[in-house]
Design a protein that fits this description.
Distance between the termini: 38 Å
Largest sheet: 8 strands, mixed
Radius of gyration: 19 Å
CATH class of the largest domain: Alpha Beta
Number of helices: 8
CATH topology of the largest domain: Aminopeptidase
CATH architecture of the largest domain: 3-Layer(aba) Sandwich
Shape: globular
Helix content: 25-40%
CATH superfamily of the largest domain: Gcn5-related N-acetyltransferase (GNAT)
Number of domains: 2
Amino acid sequence: MSQATLRLIEELAANAWPAEIVQVVDGWRLRFNWGTTRRANSVWPNEAGGAWTLDDKLAVVEDFYARRQAPARFQMCPAAQPTELDERLAGRGYRLDAPTLVQTANLAAVLSTTESRRAWSVEMADSLSDTWFDTYRQVEQIEAKDIAGQWGILQRIRPATGYALATVDGQAAAVGLGVLERGWVGVFCMGTRTEFQRRGAAKAVLNALAAWGQAQGATQMYLQVMAKNQAAIALYEGVGFATTYQYHYREQTGL
């Protein structure tokens, strides 16, 4: 994958999961949203403004998060600027956390490998509903203190959204979210209730998201999956996704 495409996917993914507070510091985006989501509570360091020294920018970052009683955290990928940032953070005692794979696929390939889903009915909606969110909350076991933060992120998404809800016999079973921008469908919030797992619900959701994206002119898909989640990785690779790069977090310690 070219550096330009990698940088594009990072930008699309940042747009698809918007924090409540975003402060731009010489190209970096400092994001804060309360709650447990790492992406919305981390620095997106993929642009180099060039006006400030690295030490000065790090001081601003650490102050930004300290004033919100949170550890400073960076989302680190091969596009991070400057190139020595990861090494510098490690030297400052930032721990490596949550290695994550970024996978991409040709949309048509995903559509063709997920087309037969038997009993599953998947409803697509362009806006967030209580039923979709309740299912997502149950699947992700979102704590009460984090519900408002997660709901807020979903409400702030500005690119086109497709909320997929799979049901069987009238029961909500699985969810997924597609975010469409510049010919790409980002896949987020995939989850299946325990009693419906390994029955094809996730593939039915992926099929619906791919069909939705194709109808709007998209040709490519991307997603982010934790490196330790082998079951999810096997699912995605089985329908045409392949890992194109990885990212991890660097989190401040000793607070």
